[in-house]
Amino acid sequence: MNKFKLYRLLRKNTNLSYKRSPAFEQNKWAKVLIYMGGGLFVLYLILYGGIIAMTADGEAGRMISMMPIILLIDFFLRFIFQTTPGMMVKPYILQPISRYTAIECFLVSEHLSSYNLLWLAMFIPYSMIILIAGAGFWAVLLELIASLLMIMLNSQIYLFFRTLINRSVLWMIPALAFYALPFSPLLVNHKNSAISKLIDTYAAIGASWYFVPALILIIVGLFYANRAFQFKYVYEEISKSKERALKHVSQFRFLERFGLIGEYLKIELKSNLRNKTMRSRCIMSLTLIVVFSLLVAYTPMYDNELMQNFWCVYCFAIYGVTALIKIMGQEGNYIDLLMTHKENIIALLKAKFWFYSLILVIPFLIMLPAVFTGKFTLLMLFAYMLLTSGFLHFIIFQLAVYNKQTLPLQQKMTAKGNFENGMQIVIEMVALFGPILIMGLGYLLMGLTYTYIMMCVIGLAFIVTHPLWIRNIYNRMMMRRYENMEGFHATRQ
Description:
This protein is mainly alpha-helical. It is built from 24 helices and no strands.
């Protein structure tokens, strides 16, 4: 069997694996929303392609000069749409084929993925407009090919950094530094003339004859580098060659006074400190909290009153949204033990509620000095902290009823994706936009001060009544317990 036939077979197997997944039926709702989102994304790309073409004055090269910004946006979008090939490669590691062949085939598929081709919705309208405006045909064709090649190159760069980020979230710093390099000349001179000169320089590089061959050589080089890189870490994870013995066991004895809830608080703390998946998610979320909090509180970037309130919501909400979006996913690894004692899960949910509420002290303390400088008010910080702890957690905790995909505690490269059903997506959308809607309506109807008071009242109401709505969640979980347990069992690694 040649590599082309093997590639077709692997593609067929990948498609069949999705259809055979126990989550396939519930994915149909997600697929509808993804297609709708994809359609809107295409419309935006067409619009921005036209806008960039209007600024090009009938000359090729403007799209290439904008690629540093486009590639940075593309890098973050790939966290949603693209995964490392480790999970797909895992079943073929012990098959009687070359150990690199499966990875090669999946890397090729990343170059030809529908997501990469989606960017043509921006490049083709841009090319047509500047061609009509008088640009040369060959110059336009060269820029179109170069733009698409740069997107393909970005997929390889993303795979390289994503593999490292999966091992340690600190690799996000060099990744961002890499994408910031094209803008580094502006640190020396950030005047408008310097920006125009930088754009013209990148446009000239993109229009040169050697640019496309250079891109092809870099793509080929990164392809073979990624081939070895991906296999190394996939094999290391499967063979558990890097597992280290635990040297110290933290007791957290101060939590024993809270009884069973205290024991589950210990589990939550230890899981976030020890388990690779949860630790990476925790570090990533806390890093974003610190960055956003510092930007909002200590820079003039968001001096507008509405923007300050908009970002302040997410400074408090981001950790709960990212960490609780898969609530009960890690417990899916030992869900049978939780079901052996009546109302165990009530204590577990209460422990999670208090743990993720106490985490809100971090953004509160970070932004507290801005209160003393007059940028924020103490009432504003309390309003967003209480609304997040009460109302937002009430919304997100509803996912505990519907989540039935086990979240691996250690695997990153070879972990399966967790798919959503329609109800999960509705709850997530309400969690994302609900606080903003409350703040916006209150601002229009009552003004900010009374809105903050209303948010405090709403948040406190949900905090005080949390035993009631947690018990309601528990009762609904018990009605679906056999369906959920079957899903947890089927999706364990």
